[in-house]
Amino acid sequence: MVAKISVGSSLFGALSYNQNKVDEQQGKVLLSNRMFESEDGNFSIRRCMECFDMHLPADLKTEKPIIHISLNPHPDDVLSDNQLADIAKEYMDKLGYGNQPYMVYKHEDIARHHIHIVSIRVDDTGKKINDKFEHVRSKQITRELEQKYGLHPAEKKQAADRPELKKVDYRAGDVKHQLSNTVKALVGSYRFQSFTEYKALLSIYNVQAEEVKGEVNGKPYNGIVYSATNDKGEKQGNPFKSSSLGKSVGYEAIQKHIKKSAKDIQDKNLKERTRRTVGAVMKSACSREQFITDLKGKGIDVLFRQNDTSRIYGVTFIDHENRTVLNGSRLGKDFSANVFNDLFTGSRTLATGNSKAEMQEHTQGNNPTGHLSEGTGKAVAGLFGLLSGGNDTPPDNSQVPPPKKKKKKQKRIY
């Protein structure tokens, strides 16, 4: 179990962060200590603020009276709400906050359920609670709780599962050793469900993997060769057979890992965190570049695959938070390559097409459903509006307007 402790001055900020999870049905209140519930049994930010204010004296001896703690069990630990509440209570008691008012929230927004605790770190006189060697004591407490509840030693496991990897650098030499270390570390810590997703993961570390098929003495065989690349994805130097790097990165081992990954992703619902994060960024990103940058800031790399005409035909997300690689289609139809093609290249295609035929090719030929996305539909409507002088109805170019009839001159009688 990993504990993270932060201190600050904003009680509202800490409470609203957790209450937002509750309001969005991504969290719940597990436990409260020395707090008053409302009549309906629920907790609101206003009610919590009032309760904490009752325990905060006017004369504070510290500028940061608020403490916010998160307790993160190992992903393989499955704990009930009662167990999580008991763990939170024992942790606070041992850390010296057992008599303080505090709120315990369970967060369910990612597959690894965890808890957050909000409390105050001053006593009734305004004096700061003893925080000497607080982080050291916290580690000791989490180790004791791991033993008591039979939990995985998350800190050691996390260090092994989340290596700090660097890109393979062909110029640095000893490429075979670099490839072996990088590929083994990635296979040991990331989940992927296809060879395409595996290749996408390797590519961001300047590694290329290729399947090799053939026959030896009449028997078919399958293998993998690995190569170093530059930042443009161009191969550098000679490739290496997987057997020279290690059995754990060979064809059969990768196929077994793919099957195991598929089961883990389904059983632990690992797609949800990625889907929610990508969906939120899609709503706010104004360009492809911003989309990539914003996702990277949330721990997700995105790779687009394009053809010679710059059409996006594939997208892969690499979520470094839950160590999962997912093609866009696995997240749902709203995250498919067609959606991103319309989102990032649709406006440019329309801008170059001045004919109705070109617009139909873009809106139907490039979209198997034949439906327009909201952004594309608006662009088409706007373009038709310009062509027809502001009328929202698309002009019918198949009908040629009849020629105007000449008025007959009337003979004047004198």
TrEMBL record:
Polar residues biased stretches: 355-370, 390-399
Segments of skewed composition (Basic residues): 403-414
InterPro entries tied to this protein: Endonuclease_MobA/VirD2
Domain of life: Bacteria
Annotated stretches, region: Disordered: 355-414
Domain MobA/VirD2-like nuclease: residue ranges: 17-151
NCBIfam families: Bacteroid_MobB (NF041325)
Name of the molecule in the record: Relaxase/mobilization nuclease domain protein
